[in-house]
Design goal:
This protein has nine helices and 13 strands. It is of the alpha/beta class. The strands form two sheets. Strands 8-7-6-9-10-12-11-13 form an eight-stranded mixed β-sheet, with helices on both faces. Helix 1 packs antiparallel against helix 8. The longest helix is centred in the first third of the chain and has 17 residues. Keywords: Polyamine biosynthesis. This is Spermidine synthase.
Length: 287
């Protein structure tokens, strides 16, 4: 879920190291405006805001440093699945929603033989981020301009190992991308051992997360959830990460689930891992 603008960000516009083409300021893009702000904590860290809402964070030269907690949750699930079910030397990863390509930079660095396709709606933003940041060139990271739903429907069967959805219009994912039909479209593009990961932004009622969990369970045999305790208890709004696959995802009590949980609990915002059984119970509460 995109984060609301930090009002102190505007005060951090001092001189900033510029190893790529990044310069603090406001830039016109196809869908409004983008703002680049030095993060104030890292020597070459940048915060990207789209129409006043936090979209991405990048530390130039350090693609494995993910500042947004939900992105660290995504890669905890992703790395575990790749290790268990996929060939890390031949990965085809599609990122629906581009921003500053933070996750694509991570994947290209951790899995140097991977082929990452980033689908970004905003053509001007896609140009800017290439200029601003150290994004690997195609085919390691290819930025494809287009609507996420339209582009996904064009994918050939079994042409992706992983699809990651992180798409927001302001602070909500377009409804089209949350439907059972869209999940089936993604599934059609995945190899048999593939993985679909999505970032769901929700409020305290958790209606969106329950609906997304139910949609994944309609299509995939195995579904998992990652989020912090306060979010899962409906005490605040924020991010919930969901994943679906036709091959087993870690079951609570297993060594694999324990390994993921250790990673999740060690972050700045400790998070919980739920397996398919717990996800089914969570989804039923919204039925």
């Amino acid at each position: 879920m995109a984060k609301k603008k930090n009002r102190n960000a505007a005060s951090r516009r001092a001189e900033h190291p510029n190893k790529t083409g990044a310069v603090a300021g406001v830039y016109p893009i196809s869908t409004g405006e983008a703002e680049l702000v030095p993060d104030g904590y890292h020597s070459d860290g940048w915060l990207l805001l789209i129409n006043g809402v936090q979209s991405s964070h990048v530390i130039v030269g350090q693609p494995r440093m993910l500042d947004f907690e939900y992105m660290r949750w995504i890669v905890a699930v992703l790395d575990s699945h790749i290790q268990t079910h996929l060939n890390p030397e031949k990965l085809r990863i599609t990122h629906l929603g581009g921003g500053a390509c933070s996750l694509a930079r991570y994947c290209a660095d951790v899995y140097p033989n991977s082929r990452n396709t980033v689908v970004e709606l905003d053509a001007k933003l896609a140009e800017h981020v290439r200029d601003w940041f150290d994004i690997p060139k195609s085919p390691r990271v290819k930025i494809r301009v287009g609507d996420a739903g339209t582009v996904t429907r064009s994918f050939a069967p079994e042409s992706r190992d992983v699809v990651i959805r992180d798409v927001f219009a302001v602070d909500k994912t377009p409804v089209e991308l949350t439907s059972v039909d869209f999940v089936r479209t993604v599934d059609h593009s995945l190899v048999p051992g593939g993985l679909y990961i999505l970032n769901c932004g929700d409020d305290r009622a958790l209606n969106a997360a329950r609906a997304e969990a139910a949609a994944l369970l309609e299509v995939f045999e195995y579904v998992s959830i990652v989020a912090d305790s306060a979010m899962l208890k409906g005490r605040r709004r924020g991010n919930i990460i969901l994943a679906g696959s036709h091959v087993p995802l870690p079951q609570l009590g297993s060594a694999e689930a324990a390994s993921i949980s250790r990673v999740l609990m060690g972050g700045g915002v400790p998070a919980q891992y739920w397996d398919t059984e717990k996800v089914r119970a969570f989804a039923r509460k919204g039925a």
